[in-house]
Amino acid sequence: MSQDWTVVAAAKKAKQQALIPKEWLLSDLPPQSTLDVSEFPDTCGLLTEEEIRITKSATGALLSNLAKGEWSSVQVTTAFYKRAIIAQQLTNCLTEIFVERALARAVELDEHLKETGKPVGPLHGLPISLKDQINIKGIESCMGYVSWIGKDADHNAVLVDILESAGAIPFVKTNIPQTLMWPETFNHVFGRTCNPYNRSLTSGGSSGGEGALVALRGSPIGVGSDIGGSVRIPSAFCGTYGLRPSYGRVPYAGCVNSMEGQDSIPSVLGPLSNDIAGIKSFVKAVVDAKPWLKDPLAVRKRWNEEEYNLVDHGNGKDLCFAILWDDGDTVPHPPVLRGLETVKKALLAAGHNVIDWKPLKHVEIYRTLRDIWGAGAEEDYNTVAMLSGEPVISTMLPEEQPVVAASEWFRPSESVSAYQLWQYQKKKRDLRQEYLRYWEETTAATGTGRPVDAIISPVAAYAAPPHGMNKSANYTMVWNLLDYAALVIPVSKVNQAIDVPRPRNEFYSDADRLLWQSYNPETYNNAPIAIQVVGRTLEEEAVIAMSEIVDNALKSSKGDS
Amino acid sequence: MSQDWTVVAAAKKAKQQALIPKEWLLSDLPPQSTLDVSEFPDTCGLLTEEEIRITKSATGALLSNLAKGEWSSVQVTTAFYKRAIIAQQLTNCLTEIFVERALARAVELDEHLKETGKPVGPLHGLPISLKDQINIKGIESCMGYVSWIGKDADHNAVLVDILESAGAIPFVKTNIPQTLMWPETFNHVFGRTCNPYNRSLTSGGSSGGEGALVALRGSPIGVGSDIGGSVRIPSAFCGTYGLRPSYGRVPYAGCVNSMEGQDSIPSVLGPLSNDIAGIKSFVKAVVDAKPWLKDPLAVRKRWNEEEYNLVDHGNGKDLCFAILWDDGDTVPHPPVLRGLETVKKALLAAGHNVIDWKPLKHVEIYRTLRDIWGAGAEEDYNTVAMLSGEPVISTMLPEEQPVVAASEWFRPSESVSAYQLWQYQKKKRDLRQEYLRYWEETTAATGTGRPVDAIISPVAAYAAPPHGMNKSANYTMVWNLLDYAALVIPVSKVNQAIDVPRPRNEFYSDADRLLWQSYNPETYNNAPIAIQVVGRTLEEEAVIAMSEIVDNALKSSKGDS
Q1: Is A229 marked within a binding site?
Q2: In what helix (H) or strand (E) does residue B192 lie, and over which residues does it extend?
Q3: Which of A259, A375, A432 sits opposite B296 (nearest CB)?
Q4: Is B555 assigned a catalytic role?
């Protein structure tokens, strides 16, 4: 390398800043001591009334107004772009900015609709944000690695081709942690993304840029990736909806990534949005485009409307949900427990059954995941980082290059032989087999004649914690190993008056005790509270439908109270 | 180990022999010099006229007569069992024999039909043979490893549960090579399986027992496994139909296997039969049983009747097939080329389009497969073999423990690190991506407005070769890496008068020249000639339907000539 890596990183960051239209730069930004900036976009004066109305619309209304030409794509794209730039100034959520290119495409789409009277596709005119690793031809995907700066992608990711054919406009790329293998968002190039509801807290990761951006309504649909919770953790921490689809349901081909070739517990792409309609529109549009004709790892499974109508779940009547209160290793903080309790109450009020889900070997599952990813992770990270000389990050704590121990789960385990990796993978297969049998056997407990329809699970043991303190992704990772589809639903926000510490005398472990001690309501105040609805492998349609049921139950129950 | 492994192996073999009912032992077996024993079951006198009629019935007729009770399951199972025992005495195709157990189940099924008037399921009363590795509770699955002798399986494989629920009767298990990673069939416990059309030739492998058994009509449907051709090679060499489904379409859970945990290019289970109806009945029955509720790796994809009706292939009119004449590495022997020519003529006569398929990077694909499997194979084989002290087999040549070099492809490559394995797996992903794009781009050449509908490919560069001489599985392995569904169709038999050597002056390589020199018509006389119809990943329905079209075209064209 000819240049110091810090110089290269700083130049890239300066270039990013220069790409923001001057008139969208805000001089009166709130001071860092202002923690909750969620209302700032509406009040800062940069957005017109109409732009506020557009960016706060439900996804269904947006799509229908775009398809009918009631709002032009230029209007909608401009509104979201401005709001995204506000979000950037508040939370540092973006990586790549390309206003002219996005608006030029919006003009084309508007002309097409005018000329033909027909929308280009189901996502006509809609701006969509993409996690940095999702390649757009002609734009960089440095993924927070200094060594990858300066290389424009020479192709679109398959997903980008599909989204563009569906009429969508990729309009910004969003921030990530170096390696993507952290549940927070910080790297040496773009820096740290913070939580719009409380900037002293993390936005989560690795799709943390998406979480902050979508939460601030700077994007109607964002695309993240999830290998161990990387869509769901930012969704939960930032209060958006977010789906982790099964392996291969959404095409991944053509993205950059860490640990390429690790195909045993792979990363998947999935959407974040402010409503479930956004999630559904995205998945249906992508699956209807037959992604298996463009990505060999995409599963040949059409969108199944019968499954969406819950044919395998009693047509959606009298469902039985099971709540995972804790994983047998750590008990969640009071706000998370209140979230689960709220959902239980709402589901019972809506006439569904709710039972408890007892965890099966979750700790073994965590270990197996770590063994598989760790088998070659260190070599992978070092190989890329050494090209520029930048250090591999060992903590997400905010101090400059702090020398502290990495958390247990995110430091790669020791490199092993391929044969040893196969033994871990065999263990994984056996755990999946056991879990499937276990789920099927719940038929005896549901009273519906069916096994449990979906699990309601915490997304983390806590709401968004302070930067550097998100040291576990256990409550999400477990479903990655099992390859279960899971959809995050926001439930409430931490209220320091209500979410007081709950006394406990017994603990699963020292870690559990430490976690309990670490809770204090002031720290977490205003952080979103969420749950995830967990279904079976390749059951995206049913998981979306059951999530709608849960979400509607929550909304009705809020209306009641 | 307390006992010499050869003693343990011999005891197991003697026990097997003792399980054959005395009255089914033939005293007048043809001498070893009689090569073609394919007609012997009909003429040996052990089978009644009706048993001959039953065992020579089309699968459709068998299933319908069983469902209507016109033939009892006891009749049908007895007929196939007797014929399987004849096949065993001719070709050494069986491992586990359990006559009483199978007939007891047949009695139950007959009673059920009598009492309820309804068949138990779509395979009611049908005996089905299983490759040795497919666990049946209470029966051994030693898989040719001495160290695994004496352990009854404590569970059914998921497939066995499904087949039994569908009314089928697993009735024999069939022979395999040690490790399963050879395209021939020999192990230290059960010995060698030979080809019923010419016993000096191999039955192929690793499902070689199934190939010989089904070819002799000792089983109406057999189940093999295919990691690199192990269903298709025996099907082709023995003249049966055989399907390699995509990863996860047929549940594999609960089988024993080699290289467990190697889940990048995994083995799949697939059926062999004497007609395509047998293949279809099996796949539809298995998929309709929702295997994803029993095996977490089974794909949630229902049997799709629209895809069977070729909705993605112009509804089956004016298809465009592409013929792979050679792989750019070795040119097939004259009988194989005649097979391809015959298919081309038949398809043209039936009104379809036929173009050439130019291979894309097949040699790189072979190398990548070998690298991935080889990454931990040697450790895997040694670990199991060392338990009994039996040697890991290094050749399929018939001499007793010959010390010769293993063929290039079947000797494991050097063990590597997990990180290195990931690099191979990344290469694999890239090759799959390139091949998919390449296939899609054939739209320009087909004249149908669609890409090529299916590839017609050799199954091997030769018909069944002499024992120990099947040194490549290239023409099948390529489709395993790509995960394409492929169905083998018998076309003809080697005729030493017609299939004379074809002069060649140019060769791809020394290996190609050696292969060309190795052909002489007398050696291969009477060996079956076959092709495979290759479709896309998870396109089993369409591949079955297109194979019916190819098969019908061949039958019509034979009728014409």
Answers
A1: yes
A2: strand B191-192
A3: A432
A4: no
Contact B263 A429 (CB under 8 A): yes
Give me B453's structure tokens: 């509908």
Identify any residues that bridge with A222 across adjacent strands, giving them in sequence order.
A129, A272
Distance CA A205, CA B93 (A): 56
Q: Could you give the CA distance from residue A560 to residue A545 in angstroms, rounded to a whole number?
A: 23
Strands A320-323 and B528-534: unpaired
Q: Is A426 on the interface with B (CB under 8 A)?
A: yes
- Percent helix, strand and coil across chain B, each rounded to 5? 40, 15, 45
Confidence grade of residue A491 (pLDDT, cut at 50, 70, 90): very high
pLDDT tens string B102-160:
999 999 999 999 999 999 999 999 999 999 999 999 999 999 999 999 999 999 999 99
A434: which chain B residues are within 8 Å (Cβ-Cβ)? none
| CATH number of the domain residue B244 falls in | 3.90.1300.10
Q: A298 to chain B nearest CA, in Å?
A: 9
- Three-state DSSP at A45 gives coil
For the residues of B68-114, what is the DSSP string, one character each?
HTSS-HHHHHHHHHHHHHHHHHHH--EEEE-HHHHHHHHHHHHHHHH
Does residue B234 lie in a domain region? Answer: yes
Name the pLDDT band for A403 (thresholds 50, 70, 90). very low
A131 included as an active-site residue: yes
Question: Which candidate in A38, A57, A129, A131 is catalytic?
Answer: A131
C-alpha A315/C-alpha A306 separation (Å) is: 9
Chain B closest CA to A302's CA: distance in Å?
Answer: 9
Give the total number of structural domains in chain B: 1
Whether A404 is in a domain gets the answer no
What distance in Å separates the CA atoms of residue A96 and residue B440, rounded to the nearest whole number? 32
3-state secondary structure of A57: coil
Mean pLDDT of A390-401: 78
pLDDT at B560 over 90: no
- Of all helices (H) and strands (E), which one includes residue A339? helix A334-349
Across the interface, do B300 and A539 touch by the CB < 8 Å criterion?
A: yes
User: A440 contacts in B (CB within 8 Å)?
Assistant: 293-294
Rounded to 5 degrees, what are φ and ψ at A18? -70, -20
Contact A429 B264 (CB under 8 A): no
CA dihedral B54, B56, B60, B64 (to 10 degrees): -10
Q: Does the distance separating the beta carbons of B423 and A418 come in below 8 Å?
A: no
Backbone phi, psi, residue A102, to 5°: -65, -45
Residue B181 has pLDDT above 60, yes or no: yes
Rg (CA), chain B: 22
Is B131 tagged catalytic? yes
Residue A481 lies in a domain: yes
- Residue A521 belongs to what domain range? 5-367+428-560
Indicate the pTM of the whole model. 0.96
Tell me whether B360 touches chain A (CB under 8 Å).
no
In a domain, residue A125? The reply is: yes
